[in-house]
């Protein structure tokens, strides 16, 4: 085989590889799109209906493999943990990124496990999420209300859409927001196609969900001098469009109870293995 034949063969293989890669990519994109619900409580949505996030699909911390390992000295020698398992020992759960069924399953499992370990001790749920599926978020919400352990919530970065509902669902007096975090509430969004009667059924369901979400926000965020009807009216109006709030505005709106600038302001923050709280550095 001469040099020209080898060159033609290399170009042919290269073209075949590109075609195969492109076909594989389209198949993955189609699969990912189907995995998202057409009816959700997401943040901003792109043309595929997926919740908008700065991270690409399947490129979270775990998927990248960049999970730090920490070493701890014990009476039996050194023990190594991934950072999230070590935080779980301190009753800390991290909810980062879009809220989908797999993410919700992990959070629910951790909530149930920590309740079984110590019923009376608080669980600390840290949230940085643009929102996601209604049903996935509701599974976390219902579990938070179901378990005996109090759940303290913290907003870091953003708590939008379903993320804001989970933030508000924490134990009263222990719903915290860091000073530069953002909170956003809005009504559910979705779409339906098919016969007119099918579309009417879906429209009726999404209106029912909007009403239920309004009631949940009112239940957890109603002000002391406010009646239930007034609270429902206030949230129904706010949910009409994307309603963004700073940390201080979220406090005034009743979604959080505190704006934390340093750990010293959080009386029940997780402690270190030594039994001491971390130094706030101030």
UniProtKB/TrEMBL annotation:
Known PROSITE patterns for this protein?
A: CLP_PROTEASE_HIS, CLP_PROTEASE_SER
EC assignment: the record states 3.4.21.92
- The answer, when asked if Acyltransferase is one of the entry's keywords, is no
The Gene Ontology CC terms held by the record are: endopeptidase Clp complex
Question: Gene3D superfamilies annotated for this entry?
Answer: 2-enoyl-CoA Hydratase, Chain A, domain 1
Q: Which GO terms describe its biological process?
A: protein quality control for misfolded or incompletely synthesized proteins
Molecular-function GO term, any one: ATP-dependent peptidase activity
Note the superkingdom of the native organism: Eukaryota
Instruction: Keyword check for Ubl conjugation, yes or no.
Output: no
The entry's active site is 161, 186
Keywords associated with the record: Hydrolase, Protease, Serine protease
InterPro entries for this protein: ClpP (IPR001907), ClpP/crotonase-like_dom_sf (IPR029045), ClpP/TepA (IPR023562), ClpP_His_AS (IPR033135), ClpP_Ser_AS (IPR018215)
Spell out the family assignment given in the record's similarity comment. Belongs to the peptidase S14 family.
Q: What is this protein called?
A: ATP-dependent Clp protease proteolytic subunit
What is the species listed in this Swiss-Prot or TrEMBL entry?
Rhizoctonia solani AG-3 Rhs1AP
